[in-house]
C-alpha cells in the first residue's frame, strides 16, 4: 500500500485521503495519460467511411489510436503520450475525405474511455 499510516497521523486525515483518492481516481488517470480529440462528423454511412477516416487520422504523427462510431457520428483521436493533437489537421483530414465536421473538442479521455462512454450511452430500444 501507500504507507498512508506513516505520512498521515490522525484518523481524520486518513479518511480525507481515502475520499480524495476514490473520488478523483478518474480525473487522475485522465491527467496522467490520455488526451483525445473528439469530433462529431456528418456523412459517415458505412464501414468503409469509418475505415477511410481511421486510416487518414492514424497517419497523423501524434495519433496513438482512432475510434469511429458510425451510429453516434463520433470520431475520436487519442494523442500519443506527451504529444499534442493538431485539431486543424484532424479537421482537414476528415473534411478532405468528404465528411462534415460539425463539432471538434479536446477531451481528457482515452479512446478506450470514449468507447466505453458511447457504449453505455446506448439508447434503450423498447
Ligand atoms: Cu461509406
Report on the architecture of this protein.
The model is unreliable at 19-31 (pLDDT under 50). The chain has six helices and four strands; from the N terminus they run H-H-H-E-H-E-E-H-E-H. The termini are far apart. It has two domains: 1-32, no CATH class; 34-120, Alpha-Beta Plaits (2-Layer Sandwich). It has a four-stranded antiparallel sheet with strand order 2-3-1-4, with helices on both faces. The protein is globular, with a radius of gyration of 19 Å. It is α+β, with helices and mostly antiparallel strands. Bound molecules: copper (II) ion.
Helical amount? 40-55%
Number of domains: 2
Q: CATH top level of the largest domain?
A: Alpha Beta
| Radius of gyration, CA atoms, in whole angstroms | 19 Å
Distance between the termini: 47 Å
- List each distinct ligand once: copper (II) ion
The stretches of 5 or more residues where confidence is low (pLDDT under 50) are 19-31
How can the largest sheet be summarized? 4 strands, antiparallel
Continuous helix count: 6
* CATH fold naming of the largest domain: Alpha-Beta Plaits
Under the CATH scheme, the architecture of the largest domain is 2-Layer Sandwich
Shape by Cα distribution: globular
Strand content: 15-25%
Strand segment tally: 4
SSE pattern, N- to C-terminal: HHHEHEEHEH
